[in-house]
Amino acid sequence: MAKVIGTVVVDRERCKGCDLCVVACPCDVLSLAAKDVNDRGYHYAMMVNPEACIGCAACATVCPDACIEVYRLTQK
Amino acid sequence: MNQDEIIKQGTKVYSRPRLMDDRNMHYCPGCSHGVVHKLVSEVIEELGLEDKTIGIAPVGCAVFAYHYIDVDWVEAAHGRAPAVATAVKRLDPSRMVFTYQGDGDLAAIGTAETIHAANRGENIAMIFINNGIYGMTGGQMAPTTLEGMKTATTPYGRRVDLNGYPLNITPLLAQLPGTCYVTRQSVHTAASVRKCKAAIKKAFQAALDGRGTAVIEVVSTCNSGWKMSPAKANEWMEENMFKAYPLGDLKPLE
């Protein structure tokens, strides 16, 4: 069976750490950086569980700052 | 398989809309305005109206909307966006004209302009962001504030005997024969964002086709004004705002 894998790229400097993508992700892929902050002092979102990503783009859809890009690949 | 390989071999399924300018928005983290700006950019791009769209920016949090979406804009005085939109649309009826207003702009100071523009059936689209509070000025009570809701000017909750009832303006507009499409949406989950995008697309197309005024109310959060985290504000909105402002089409497009 074909398997769909995905990945997201977060624009760290644009991210405001609102946590909405973390809540929206159905596979618990994303989390806010625990200690690191970007130039503006926000705890940016990052992938903590990249293997689980299915590239559904739910995180990018709800992101108010449009800082997430989503890629999807179907493995045969 | 690592990230670089997926990016190289896979397809990009979501990226920042081309029409959004490359600058950071001034909105608070988690603000619904950002999502709606994104949807407006995507819809204009999908309809191919980049050169034909004129937006009317309001006064309120979205006052800098012209900085974020790369189409033509006119900045209106507080509440007067539908009046300015009327003028713009009548001067050049080939353009798609939309207003982008908050509840302080559309439902408070601009009530007269809103109702009369809709009653005249001006061929414009109105996007109405309803978060039940005056976000820009520091969280004061708005006409749409819910009963019992605490704001800076109603610290013990809104009292109906003192402040009146929450103003539910979209059903008023739906009664008018001039409106062609009136709907209420939200942007708190991925599914609702997609639905809202479809509604905005329908409204823009209807305004362009000259079918009358199209109104899209987006029930939104103001996590700073409500003094909650963005995720908690979404939950609060589902529990409280949706009871007073139920989602769905109030006047479907015929």
Question: What report would you give on this structure?
Answer:
- The complex is a heterodimer of chains A (76) and B (254).
- Chain A is built from 2 helices and 4 strands, in the order βαββαβ.
- By secondary structure, chain A is of the alpha+beta class.
- The longest helix of chain A is centred in the N-terminal third of the chain and has 5 residues, at 20-24.
- Chain A has a single domain, classed as Alpha-Beta Plaits, CATH 3.30.70.
- In chain A, the strands form 2 sheets. In chain A, strands 1-4 form a two-stranded antiparallel ribbon. In chain A, strands 2-3 form a two-stranded antiparallel sheet.
- In chain B, helix 2 packs across helix 9 and helix 5 (103-109) crosses helix 6.
- Chain B is α/β, with parallel strands linked by helices and 254 residues long.
- Chain B has a single domain, classed as Rossmann fold (3-Layer(aba) Sandwich), CATH 3.40.50.
- Chain B has a 7-stranded mixed sheet with strand order 3-2-4-5-7-6-8, with helices on both faces.
- In chain B, helix 3 (65-68) links the parallel strand 2 (53-57) and strand 3.
- Chain B contains 11 helices and 8 strands.
- At the A-B interface, strand 1, helix 1, helix 2 and strand 4 of A face helix 1, strand 1, helix 2, helix 9 and helix 11 of B.
Total beta-strand segments of chain A = 4
Order of helices and strands of chain A: EHEEHE
* Largest binding interface between chains: A-B, 36 and 36 residues
How are the strands ordered across the major sheet of chain A?
1-4
Percent helix of chain A: 10-25%
Figure out the total of helices of chain B. Answer: 11
Task: Give the end-to-end Cα distance of chain B, rounded to a whole number of Å.
Answer: 50 Å
List low-confidence stretches of chain B: none
CATH topology of chain B: Rossmann fold
Supply the CATH architecture of chain B. 3-Layer(aba) Sandwich
